[in-house]
Each structure stands twice: as structure tokens, then as C-alpha cells.
Amino acid sequence: MKMRTHSPSLLFVTALALIVFALLPACGGGDEPSTTEAAASRPAETAATGDGGGATAGSGEATPASDPALEDTSAETDREALVALYDATDGDDWLNNENWLSDAPLDEWFGVNTDDDGRVTGLELVYNQLTGEIPAELGNLANLTTLWLSGNQLRGEIPPELGNLAQLVELVLDENRLDGEIPPELGNLANLDTLAAPRNQLQGEIPSELGSLGRLHTFWFEGNRLSGEIPSWLGNLANLKDLALNSNEFSGKIPPELGNLANVTTLWLSENRLSGEIPPELGNLTNLGSLWLHGNDLSGEIPPELGSLGRLEVLRLYDTDVSGCLPSVLRSRLNSEGSELGQLEFC
């Protein structure tokens, strides 16, 4: 049988056709990506349109992924902060450490309050023989609203990490051995109502950052070693009711801006190194019930504007160089037992 042979020209045309067919995917239009390219691009598109959680089809909005372990993780973070406090303050020797370090729910640990999710909201360990330093880990108690550590033997500085407690309403650290300066980070506590650390060994000036504490009702730092001038911006804290800066080392004049504190009921500035005259603006404090100015280098005459203090019951002006006479209208208002006027008389 005779085999058929192909001409060289036919072979050349066939080879050329195969080459062109092979090149078509690479040269075709350039408008549509190949299947491989499209697949490779999908992760980038997913990252651009969502957070990798569940994006609702057609909505273009990401739905936050629900993590059932998140709640437990947060509670565990709180537990770790409490353990750090126990370890740092000699918890084995506390007067009461019931259930601490146990597997009991945190709200069964002595002095601990929690919300319905098990997050710590309150920590009240007053007069419980805590010693040592306040650990920075307390700044991790994100839901904490109340922190009372009064009447212990805590020493060292107030940790600046407490400025992370965005929900904190009450910070009370009185009657300890705390030293160092007041952390400016406490000015971040926008919800703070009470800031009290009397009878410690704090020093330095009051940081200006505390001027942002617009909800503050109580500012109590009696019996420390604070110095510098009393800040005029304290007069901008419109909700302030109790201001106690007595028994420190403040100098300079009494800021007349304190006369803007329309809600203040207690103003204690005694036993410092204040000088100058009593500002007549203090006569604007119509809710003031107790005014302590004794034990300073104050001079000048009693401003008659003090006669406008219709609710004043306690006035202490002894051990000063103030002269003149007190408005006679105060005679019937002042409590004779609580008030000490030195050599001053009524007009």
C-alpha cells in the first residue's frame, strides 16, 4: 500500500495555525482577566470590601463577627488584674481576703462588684491592711466605676495607668502613704465624679490636665505636700461641690476665679502659705457652707461681699493677718462651735 505524503507547504500552514491558537489567550483583547488572575485577585477584593467577618450579600456592609469567647476573655483579663493587686499588696495578710484567688465568681471575692457579664465594676478594699504599691494592671479593669482603697498602707506613686479607666466615677485613695506627683493621665477620666487622696505624701503641682474633669464634684487633697499656686482653672469646674486643699504647701494668692464655683459647699484652703487679700469674688458662693482660710499669710480687710454668703455656717480666719470686721449679717448664721475668728469682731 502506498503511503500518502503531505506537501511541505501544508505542513507549514498547519504548524502556523497551532502557534496562533496557542497565543490567543495571551493576546486576546486584554479586557478580561484570565481565570487564574481573577482567582488571585479575590483575597485583595475581600480585604477591600470587609473585615473578613460576615459581609451581607449585596449590602456592602460588614457584620461584626460574634465571638462567644470574648466575654470570658474580658472577665479573665479582670481576674488577672485582681490577682496582680493581691500579689502586689500582700494579699495573704489582708484582714479579709475571702474567695480571692479561688475559682469562685469574681463578685464573690471580698470587696469586688461585677455587672451581669461578670466584668468588675467596683473594687472597695478600705481599711483592709493592703501594703505595697498599687499595680499598673488595675488600669485594665475597663468597666470599673468605683475604686476605693482608703485607710491602707499603700506606698509609691499613683500609677498613670489608672487614667485608662474610662468608666471610672469614684477614685478614693485617702489615708495611705502614696507619694510622687498626681499623674496628669487622670485628666482622661471624663466620667470622674470624685477624686480624693487626702492624708498621703503627694507632692508637686496640680497638673493642668485635671482641668478637663468637667463632671467633678469632689476634689479632696487635704494633708499632702502639694505646692505651687492654686490653679485658677479650678474655677471652671462648674459642678464642683467640695474643694479641700488645706494642709499643703501652696503659695501665692487665692484665685478670684474660685468665685465662679456656684455649687461649691466646702472650700478649705487653710494651713498653706497663701498670701494677699481675700478675694471679694468669694462672696458669689451663695451655696458655701464652710470656709477655712486660717493658718495662712493673708492680709488686708475682710471684704464686705462675704455678707452675701447666706448659707455660710463655718468660718475660720484665725492665725492670719486679716483685719477689719465681719459683716454683722453673719453673726446669726455662723456656728459658734465650728467657727474660729481669732481677734476679728462683727461690724
Which oligomerization state do the chains in this entry correspond to? Answer: single chain
Gyration radius, in Å: 36 Å
Instruction: Please identify which CATH superfamily of the domain at 129-346 we are dealing with.
Output: Ribonuclease Inhibitor
Structural class: alpha/beta
- In angstroms, what separates the terminal alpha carbons? 149 Å
Question: What is the CATH topology of the domain at 129-346?
Answer: Leucine-rich repeat, LRR (right-handed beta-alpha superhelix)
CATH architecture of the domain at 129-346: Alpha-Beta Horseshoe
Helix content: 10-25%
Instruction: Provide mean pLDDT, rounded.
Output: 85
As residue ranges, the low-confidence spans are 1-66
Q: What proportion strand?
A: 15-25%
CATH class of the domain at 129-346: Alpha Beta
Main sheet specs: 10 strands, mixed
Q: Based on DSSP secondary structure assignment, what is the total number of beta strands?
A: 22
Global geometry: elongated
Instruction: Write the element-wise H/E pattern from the N-terminal end onward.
Output: HHEEHEEEEEEEEEEEEEEEEEEEE
The number of helical runs is 3
Which strand order spans the largest sheet, edge to edge or round the barrel? 3-4-6-8-10-12-14-16-18-20
Describe the 3D structure.
By secondary structure, the protein is an alpha/beta fold. It has a domain at 129-346: Leucine-rich repeat, LRR (right-handed beta-alpha superhelix), CATH 3.80.10.10. The protein is built from three helices and 22 strands. The protein has helices spanning 8-27, 35-49, 70-88; strands spanning 54-55, 62-63, 112-114, 120-124, 131-133, 146-148, 153-156, 170-172, 177-178, 194-196, 203-204, 218-220, 225-229, 242-244, 249-253, 266-268, 273-276, 290-292, 297-298, 314-316, 325-326, 345-346. A hairpin with a 6-residue loop joins strand 1 and strand 2 (62-63). The protein is elongated and about 70 Å long. The chain starts with 7 loop residues before the first helix and ends with a strand.
